[in-house]
Amino acid sequence: NDEKGHAGQILIDTGTLIWLHAVHGVEPLDMPEFTQWNTDIRVIADGVLNGQNQE
User: What is the pLDDT of residue 4?
Assistant: First the structure.
């Protein structure tokens, strides 16, 4: 993020996966891996979506 607290690219990419699921029904784990990150953000997005479905 920057000095104003704007989201960094990893958060933007994770949010995009969540948005794709919400708008188009695309499962995050069906998308290609984001190789620029050490963490598999598809798993994070999937976890967020699964957490939302449990509430």
Answer: 79
